[in-house]
Write a structure and sequence with these properties.
Elements: H1 9-20, H2 24-34, H3 37-54, H4 59-66, H5 70-82, H6 86-95
Helix pairs in contact: 3-5
Length: about 100
């Protein structure tokens, strides 16, 4: 399912709430309330995998660094290649800060 199919006012409000966060500590507080520990770990791993793929790391290097399965690495790679460019936007912005 593509995220466009999920667009509605409630999801807009969630994203506006994320955009309203001003510090890393506020992010910790919000995501602690919003997500389970396992969900946060999964999000963290996917973002780390995307960053490592963009750095040119191999699947085996990424598995060793993150402990992530090759299926997850493949999924993230597909998102980098064919997705909405969300990973690229964030990773590129973080590199420029």
């Amino acid at each position: 399912m593509h995220i466009d199919n999920l667009k509605d006012e409630a999801l807009d409000n969630l994203f506006k709430g994320v955009l309203a966060l001003q510090t890393v500590e506020e992010c910790y507080q919000f995501f602690d309330d919003l997500c389970t520990a396992n969900e946060i770990i999964a999000l963290k791993q996917r973002f780390q995998v995307a960053t490592l793929i963009k750095q040119g790391k191999t699947y085996s290097e990424i598995e060793e660094i993150t402990g992530t399965s090759s299926a997850t690495i493949s999924r993230v790679r597909r998102a980098l290649e064919y997705g909405s460019d969300g990973y690229h936007t964030i990773i590129d912005r973080l590199k420029n800060n």
